[in-house]
Amino acid sequence: MKSLFWADGSAQIGLGHLARASMIARALNAFADINCILLTCSTDEALGARFRSAFQSVQRISSRADASQEINLLKRIIAPERSQLLVMDKPHYDSSLCDMLAQLRRTPNAPRIAAFDAAGIRPGCVDVIIDANCPAEDARRFDRTDTRALFGPDFAVVNAAFLEARDRFCVRDDMARIAVSMGGSDPNSVSAMALQAALEVENATIDIVIGPAFEARTVSRLFAAIIEGRVNIHRDVNHESQAAIFADADACIISGGITMFEVATIGVPGFVIAQNDPQLNNARHLSSYEAVVNLGLFSDTSVQSIAATLSTFGNSPIKRKKLSEAATEAVDGKGIDRICRALVGLMKGTGNTAQQ
Prior knowledge:
By secondary structure, this protein is α/β, with parallel strands linked by helices. The chain has 2 domains: 2-158 and 334-348, Rossmann fold (3-Layer(aba) Sandwich); 160-330, Rossmann fold, CATH 3.40.50. Helices cover 41% and strands 17% of the residues. The strands form 2 sheets. The chain has a 7-stranded parallel beta sheet with strand order 3-2-1-4-5-6-7, sandwiched between helices. Strands 10-9-8-11-12-13 form a 6-stranded parallel beta sheet, sandwiched between helices. Helix 10 (277-287) links the parallel strand 12 (270-274) and strand 13 (293-297).
C-alpha cells in the first residue's frame, strides 16, 4: 500500500508538520509495510535528512502554487502512484483548499483523506480529522457525518523515546535543572527570554536545545548568554537524546507544539510560552487538564513573570508532583499507535468513517 503526505515546514511556520508527518510515515511503514511519499514546498534546510529519510520519495511543489494547482498536482501524483491514503498536515485549511479536497474526494478511485490540525474544517472534506489540541467532546459535531474526528491528547503524536523516558523521571525536592526547548524553530527568539528567566532560579543548571531551523541571530544570542557551569547548549539532538535531557530536568520551558506533548508524556513539569496564536490555543487546551502551565503568548509575558512562576513551583515539590501526575494522566504517549490503526483501517476499508 502507498500513502501520500502533504506537509510543509520552515523557520517561520515551524517544523512540527514535517516532524509529525515523518513520525507517522515511519510508523505506518513498520505497522503495515506502507510506502510513504512526501509532497512539500519546504527547502532542503527545513526538510533535513531525518525527515526526508522517512519517505520513499520526496516531490517538491512551488510555494507560490495556489490550492487549485496543488490539487491538480495531487491528482497527477495519486494516479500513477496508486496512493490509497492522502495525509494532510498543513498550517491552514482555507475555504478554497476545503473545496478542492471535497472535489478530490468525489473523483473515481480517490484516496482516503486524513487531515491533522483541521478541527475547523467542514464535514465531508476529509475522511478523518486528527487534532490532539481539540477537546475530545468536540468530536460530537461530526456525529452522523462521513467524517470521523479523533480529538484530544490520546491522539498526540509523540516518539516512543519520550514514553520510554517516563520511568527515568522523578520529582525531586529542588528545581536544580531546567530544560529549554522551543521545538524545531524559534522565529521570535523566545529561547533567549526563557534562558534569562531560568537563570533567575538560584543555582539551577539550564539545558537549551537548539532546533534545526533556528536562525543565526537566535543562536548567537543564546551563546552570548552562556554562564560557565550553568548553561549547556545542545545541537543536532535526536529523539532519544532530547528525551534524556527532558527526563533529567526538574522543569521544562517549552513552546506549544509537539514538544509540549513530549514533555507531558515524560511527566516533567512543563511551562509553555506560545510562539503564536495557534500555540496559545494548544497551551490553553492542555492546561485545562492541569497538565502544563500556560505562560501565555511570548509578546504578552516577560522574563520577570516567567521567573516568578518558576519560583513558585520551584519552592513546592508538591505542586510539581501534582503537575507531573496530571501530565502523564492526560498524555499517555500512545497516540501514534491509535492513529496508525485508524489510518490502516481506513485504507483497508475496515474503519468506520463516521464518528463512533
